[in-house]
Structure formats: C-alpha cells, structure tokens
Amino acid sequence: LHNSSSQNEDCCIQKFNIAILGASGVGKSRLARTQYLNRLFFGTIEDNKELSIRENDDSRRSDPELQAKFMIEILDNNIIEQNLNEVHGVIIAYSISDYESFLEVEKFFKEIKGVYQKEVPIIVVATKSDLESSKRMVSTKDGEILANRLGCLFMEVSAKKNKGVNEAFTELVQLIEKNMIEQEEVQRFRAKLV
Ligand SMILES: Nc1nc2c(ncn2[C@@H]2O[C@H](COP(=O)(O)OP(=O)(O)OP(=O)(O)O)[C@@H](O)[C@H]2O)c(=O)[nH]1
C-alpha cells in the first residue's frame, strides 16, 4: 500500500482478498496486473489525481472514497481450497474468443459453492472485449444470460485496453462490503436469539 495518509486513516482501511478463477489463457494474470497498475484500492487519493489525466482508459473513473477505504489483494492461481477462508470475493473469467472457457464458468461456480460455507460474492467477467468481432465466439447476450442464471453480476472487460477493469473490481468490492454488513447483521440477530 502506497501511503501518505495519516496513521488514523490507515487503521480504517479494510483488506479484501479477491480470487480470479477461469480457464487457462483467459487473461487472469493480465486482468490482475492491469488492476494493480490502476492503483484503485492500493494508492492514495493523490495518486488518483495523477491517474485522472491518463487518457484512453477508464482509471480516471476511480472512486477516491472507495480507494481510501479498501485495499485488495488479487489471487489468480485457481487454487480454491487453499485460500478457502481468506477469499472475500471471486471473479470467474472467460474469454469472448474461447467458447470452452465460457462453458467452464459454471464448473467454477459450482466448485466455489461446494467449497465455501458462507456466502461469497461472485461476478462473471468476459475478457478480451477489444478483440475484433470475427474472433468473438461468445455473444454479450449469452454472457448475460449465464450470469443471470447463476445470480451473478456480469461485465465485459478488456485488460489490454483497460476498459471496464476498474468498474468490475469496484462492483465486486461494493458487493463484498454489502455482504459483510449483511453477515454481521445476521450474526448480531443470532446473538440476540441466544
Ligand atoms: N486482446 C487481448 N488479449 C489479452 C487480454 N488479456 C489477456 N490477453 C492475452 O491473453 C493471453 C493469456 O493471458 P494471461 O493473463 O496469461 O492468461 P491467464 O488466464 O492468466 O493464463 P494461465 O496462467 O494459463 O491460466 C496473453 O497472450 C495475453 O496477452 C485482453 O484484454 N485483450
């Protein structure tokens, strides 16, 4: 965490671990790297101003308020069991140019549901949206339908063009935050019953 904020602010920064799962070659590492370089959730608000003058990418839509509140660590090794208790949110990725990878989304989804005891926010991310239409094997509509059926948010992104990447991580962080508040409320409610 690059930091120029005060000690007091540091103590309020929450750390979330995000796992990126998906078939080989869908662009998990590049997605993680792009987001890391965007520095949303890692840097300071000053860094954010610097980013705001970069053109041709969406990092200028970074939210300084979120950035000051959260830090994320991204795991992209597909090892679900090993990171069982440490993962707060999951991205299941497939590539729009790889139909097989699309078919694997549900397999990953079921695996997560089988492994995690508690509710963990999951979003489905279609990668490589910059590719020309002749390379596209999965339509946006099909991606939306699948995500909808699984009850997940859906986004199409391009790590290469840095399009939609910040938005995807921001949506997930917001879901994680909401999920945590809900879990705390459930626990408080249960404690009252005892
Ligand atoms: N056009 C395009 N290519 C991309 C994009 N993201 C990744 N790639 C390319 O896709 C290939 C695979 O990317 P990786 O990030 O290594 O994919 P991965 O899912 O981590 O792969 P594994 O480590 O094998 O699981 C590389 O050649 C990347 O440059 C993108 O947004 N657009």
UniProtKB/TrEMBL annotation:
Enzyme Commission numbers on file? 3.6.5.2
Listed Pfam families: Ras
Enzyme class (EC, first level):
hydrolase
Q: Which PROSITE patterns match?
A: RAB, RAS
Give this protein's Gene Ontology molecular function annotations: G protein activity; GTP binding
Biological source species = Acrobeloides nanus
Query: What is the name of the protein in this document?
Result: small monomeric GTPase
- Indicate whether Hydrolase appears among the record's keywords: yes
Question: What catalytic activity does the UniProt entry give for this protein?
Answer: GTP + H2O = GDP + phosphate + H(+)
The protein's UniProt keywords, in alphabetical order, are: Hydrolase
What Gene3D superfamilies does the annotation carry?
Answer: P-loop containing nucleotide triphosphate hydrolases
Family of the protein in this entry: Belongs to the small GTPase superfamily. Ras family.
